[in-house]
Amino acid sequence: MIDQPTLDELWDFGDPAASEARFRVELEQGGPWDDTERAELTTQLARAIGMQGKFDEAAAILIEIPEESDPIVGVRVLLESGRVMNSSGHPEAAAGLFRQAATIAGRLGAEFLLIDALHMLAIVDAPGAEDWTARAVELAEASPDDRTKRWLVSLHSNLGWRYFDDDNLDAAFASFTEAARWADLLGTAQQREWAQEALAECAAAMDAASESL
User: Fold this and answer.
1) Does 112 share its domain with 10?
2) Same domain, yes or no: 159 and 112
3) How much is the pLDDT for 1?
4) Which member of 67, 87, 169, 196 has the greatest number of CB atoms within 10 A?
């Protein structure tokens, strides 16, 4: 199994095409990877391709990953298949895949991937977003691993944007404040920047709402 910091080094979520190229290089050159790790890298290759809107290509890659791969790889296949389904306009189908991923990750004790699945369920299942987020936040806060705790930035931020879109600006600002706090503690430079931008946008919306009263 590849640890998350190693995968982080290969990822640039702001540039999925460059990320795709890095994953292809790792897979083509062989590197130090065993078969299970190559399968993990392949799931991330598919994710990078899907982020570019090439959903059929991403899905085809995921289907080709051997079913007998490590259970962790199976969870990653479910996660990335769900992301492809959601991004291509099928959130209900995606939710089923994310539920499967959460169940298996929980059984395996794969905390990072379990939180990932819960965070995706909060995105695709609007009525249950608060509950899914609360479960994920509880796990992340209790984790001894700082990389896993970093999920708190995205979890609070995503919930904040959901509140924002629902015009619940006070709740949005509270969530963005928590996201910014965790970004300052454990986040990347990009996350810190995004957190401050979210706070500024929400504050401006609150000011505009007050002026219209």
Assistant:
1) yes
2) no
3) 84
4) 169
Number of domains in the chain: 2
Residues 118, 62, single domain; the answer is yes
User: Does one domain contain both 118 and 164?
Assistant: no
What's the farthest any 2 CA atoms get from each other in the chain? 63
From 134, 186, 138, 190, select the one nearest 158 (Cα to Cα).
Answer: 134
Q: Do 11 and 19 contact (CB within 8 A), yes or no? A: yes
Cβ–Cβ under 8 Å, residues 114 and 105 = yes
Which of the pair, 154 or 31, is modelled with greater confidence? 154
pLDDT of residue 27: 95
Q: How far apart, in whole angstroms, are the C-alpha atoms of residue 174 and residue 192? A: 16
Residue 91 lies in a domain: yes
| Structural domain for 166, as ranges | 150-213
DSSP string, 61-93: HHHTS-TTS-HHHHHHHHHHHHHHHHHTT-HHH
Does a structural domain hold residue 132? Answer: no
For residue 121, give the CATH number of its domain. Answer: 1.25.40.10
CB atoms within 10 A of CB 98: 28
Q: What is the rounded CA–CA span in Å between residue 143 and residue 149?
A: 6
- Predicted pLDDT of residue 32: 87
Cβ within 8 Å of residue 180, ≥6 positions away:
192, 195, 196, 198, 199
